[in-house]
Design goal:
The protein is an alpha+beta fold and 76 residues long. It is built from two helices and two strands. It comes from Gossypium klotzschianum. This is DUF4283 domain-containing protein.
Length: 76
């Protein structure tokens, strides 16, 4: 239960560095696990009212390498 909450509660940091955790399979070699990707939310602050549109969200998306989705309910 604790392991699952730690994995689901990520991303974590240690000394201001991103800490990537992964549950290893039974026979998985830890030296061969590529710890190169983590999913996290990006929140944009102080956008003037009326300017946060789907178009702006798509422009911001262009700066992120692997963009998954944006919350359309918060536009405007």
């Amino acid at each position: 239960m604790d392991l699952e909450s730690v994995i689901k509660g990520s991303p974590w940091t240690f000394n201001n560095h991103l800490l990537i955790l992964r549950h290893l399979g039974e026979r998985e070699d830890p030296l061969k696990v590529p710890l190169i990707l983590v999913t996290f939310w990006v929140q944009i602050h102080e956008v003037p009212p009326g300017f946060f549109t789907e178009s702006l969200a798509r422009q911001i998306r262009g700066f992120l390498r692997n963009f998954l989705e944006f919350d359309e309910s918060n536009l405007g």
